[in-house]
Predict the structure.
Amino acid sequence: MASGRVAGHGQSYCCRRRRFHSCGAPVEFPLGPDDAPHLSQGRPLETGSQTASVTATLVGAALGAPDVVKAVVKTRKPPMTRYDSLAESASARHVFAFAEAEHMVTSSYDRLISLAGRIDALLPGDDVTVVQRSSLRMEVVSIVQQFVRAVDLLLDLHGFSTFALDNPLQRFWRDLNVGARHAQLSTCITTENYGRLVTEAAGAGGLSVRRPSLAA
């Protein structure tokens, strides 16, 4: 353990550090009050920033899935119907044509870009409360779940042939569902943490879950 400085976003933080090794290269983390490694690197919003970064890697799969269905929506015939294509089905159009799945993807993408901007503007986040930080993580998880739901709808529309190994929609679905279960995006733990903090704040008479202002 040694003392040192952690540089980040134009500021430095004096802190104690503990050195770890990853793939042979030393990795140093500042220490928290209980001498455990402080994985947020001493910056309160770093975990939220990392969570948003993990989500950003899933955007390609979410945006690519509608393109696969677009390519077949006017030629693929729904089974056991009189329709000559998915485009003739009112319910299929509702699911696909900007009413549900596509809107989920594009609106979630816009939410993620906005959220990333808010987090970046707030770093290091010393003035942001733990409830507000947890709320930001809840928003990231909500965005990811919206991506997953949208692609699930597209799979329902495309049918079981989606799961053919050479079907790109299957790859998008798989990659998105694997990524959505990354430790940083744990739905149950994030929800549990947020629920606990909100309940404790309400019991103490200090409930405040408003999003932090960009000017904070």
